[in-house]
Design a protein that fits this description.
The protein has 264 residues and is of the alpha/beta class. The protein has helices at residues 31-37, 48-56, 95-98, 145-153, 169-180, 191-199, and strands at 5-13, 60-64, 105-110, 133-139, 158-160, 184-187, 205-211, 237-245, 251-258.
Length: 264
């Protein structure tokens, strides 16, 4: 199936941690993380993330629900859906959003369980650099009908992919390509989603900007969180593209993913 190029990029401690603790999702600030990040506004355009955006010009970014809400957090209740739910389980791509003037890209989020509420739909809320970007959800046949009805009421587009209890990432990426013309996706997601992408053979490039600090913690989110390799399963091999020393002790490693036999 045709799919976009998938580029992973994360900022991590030297021991591969993506957050300061399990209770602090990726998109929530923490002064302890900022202490090792050692970043200043003057350096924004020289960071790995901004350079990768200029190199690949992605039309979509990708996050998992765990970037927005902690695992185990109970979402707010939604009104129960009454009526035939079947039409809800078709892709929802309203013309008013899909064909809106000035479109530039999609903030794509995997939320098959319907965990996130109070989405910020329009990227303009994040500043001038995000004007023209809009939220797009990836869901599945297992997603609660009440949540899909909520997305439709909010005019939040979504793509339905998967019917076995989780979002089928390969199908979802295929729909991004065929339905929306996306040719490159930039994943800044957490370890579970990045790990699922990697195990499914859907990653083309891995970028990690390591920070000068060590966090530790057995349950602290890390770069790739997957089940262990089976006895006959080979690790994912990488080919170094570049290694750059950044400012303030940061190091950016950029790798091409070597496809396993049978992967495209």
């Amino acid at each position: 199936m045709k799919r976009p190029q998938v580029i992973i990029i994360n900022t991590a401690s030297v021991d591969g941690k993506l957050a300061i603790s399990p209770e602090r999702p990726l998109l929530y600030g923490d002064e302890r993380w900022q202490a090792i990040e050692a970043w200043s506004p003057a350096e924004e355009s020289t960071g790995a993330y901004d350079q990768i955006k200029r190199i690949h010009r992605p039309q979509a970014t990708l996050e998992g629900s765990g970037s927005f809400v902690p695992e185990g957090a109970e979402p707010g209740p939604l009104p129960p859906f009454e009526g035939d739910p079947e039409p809800l389980y078709e892709d929802f791509l309203p013309d008013g959003v899909i064909r809106r003037e000035g479109h530039r890209g999609w903030f794509t989020a995997v939320d098959g369980r319907g965990r996130v509420r109070n989405w910020i739909k329009d990227g303009a809320a994040f500043g001038a650099d995000h004007v023209g970007w809009h939220l797009l959800a990836l869901v599945g046949r297992h997603t609660p009908a009440a949540y899909l009805a909520y997305l439709q009421r909010e005019s939040i587009p979504y793509l339905v992919a998967g019917d076995n209890g989780h979002v089928d990432l390969g199908v979802a990426l295929g729909k991004l390509a065929t339905e929306l013309g996306v040719t490159c996706v930039l994943s800044t997601a957490g370890g579970k989603l990045n790990g699922a992408l990697l195990r499914a053979g859907l990653v083309d490039e891995v970028n990690v900007e390591f920070l000068p600090g060590v966090i530790g913690g057995r349950d602290t989110p890390s770069l790739f969180e997957t089940p262990g390799l089976a006895p006959d399963e080979m690790p994912t091999r990488l080919k170094l593209i570049s290694a750059q020393m950044q400012t303030r002790g940061r190091v950016w490693l950029r790798y091409h993913v070597i496809p396993k036999e049978g992967e495209v």
